[in-house]
Amino acid sequence: MAKHMMTLTVNGDVYELMVSDNQTLLDVIRDTIRLKGTKRGCTTGACGVCCVNNAKGEAVLSCITHALEWDGESITTIEGLEANGELDAIQKAFIEFGAVQCGFCTPGVIMSAKAIVNKYPEPTEEQMNAGLAGVLCRCTGHVKVKEAVRQDHELREAARHAAAK
Amino acid sequence: MLLPDHQYVTTNSLKECLRLLAESREKAMVVGGGTDVIFNMRLKLFQPDVAVSIRKLDELQQVEELTNGGLRIGAGARLADLAEHPAINDRYPAFAESVRAVASTHIRNMATLGGNICLHTRCAYTNNSEEWRKGLNSCFKTEGKICHVIQTSSRCLAINNADTPLALIILGAVLTLQSAGGSREVPIAEFYTNDGMDNTVLRPDELLTHITIPPVSDRTAFLKLAPRQGMDFATVAVAARCDGTGEKVSKVSIVVGSISTNPIILHEPSRIVSEQGLGDEAISAAVDSIRDELGPLTNLFSRASYKRQMANVLVRRVLVALRES
User: Fold this and answer.
1) Residues B246-267: pLDDT tens digits?
2) Which chain B residues have a beta carbon less than 8 Å from that of A48?
3) Could you tell me if residue A57 is left (phi over 0), alpha (psi between -120 and 50 degrees) or otherwise beta?
């Protein structure tokens, strides 16, 4: 398999990578860069656990896209949410509401949830449902996840007020 | 898990892309968002030598407002962008609805309109892993000579599950197909064939580049029924259009999708309501006449009998929606 040079920014870090034609973005994230937070599930776009955010903060599936398609682009994975050792508000909300069971889908669910609050800071029920429909939790369901997404805004506001004081 | 071996090529101009398609023909496959092509590559249903990416072709991602009030949409435009496009929502609400009905938010953030129009057909047998498929003999799609959906069939009966073409058909959209040798315009109503294997008239050296929608002031509606709303392919989807106001109409068109190898334009039900209006009785008469026009098919996730029943329900609902719009 021919390999090509590509540049990919992951969580703010720039990687110069040698990538083959038949590698997907997920293969590169997990096996080349070795960030194992992003999970490999169905690999056909049905389950959503491979979800990462693109440069616009939208949820995309890394398992059904050629890695080379992303040359020069920037993405965020689950590892990129925490800053300076502190978890992102959405991660804290997931912990607070127990929106996790076995944890396998959690990176994909959190990145999908993150994409929702990126676009709609105070999402409606419909916006949450639409944003979470493409990612499947195998064991619990989306009720606690939605409670966590609702909490994200409050946590963010609280942190903003605390910083302002 | 790597994809099957193939060459990946990014094209930087439409000309370069068309030249590559002309050279590679059947061995090449165009990749827009990748969500259908890579899915099929995973299942080993597509095994192209070359994957030709059109993502960098800006001219295929524009939405152009035409002076006659219509729109010309690049085939590479993302569904997520089209779903929120003001002119599309304003001028063609049923089309906007059909765009939002496609798959999930995640998929719409990647998938293109051209990809949905050229979506490969799906079926309960082939849409499983290669290992699973080994339990039965090969079918038309996997180099065999039978169809597992209907064994006596002489052609592949996989289903066209695309949502957006239904709305585009009632709107009278025209597709621009370009090749290195030239360009042709094909009304989307004539784009599909009844062969699940080779389900469009697009030639291997051609690329769907633009979708032109003429100005439409008629009432339109789109409805989709799926096992899981916000994710799945349709069990049945329907789009309809009519002139007039309230029950008064003189021309109604109805298209049903996800029920056959191609979208089905319903002639008799349309004729009944066009002549008799959108009153309850006329709608019931129209629904009663659907059966004769739907082929004997089955598919993914649901039985033919269920699909048939739901086609009746959706056609009734869509006609009521038109009446009330």
Assistant:
1) 999 999 999 999 999 999 999 9
2) 104, 106
3) left
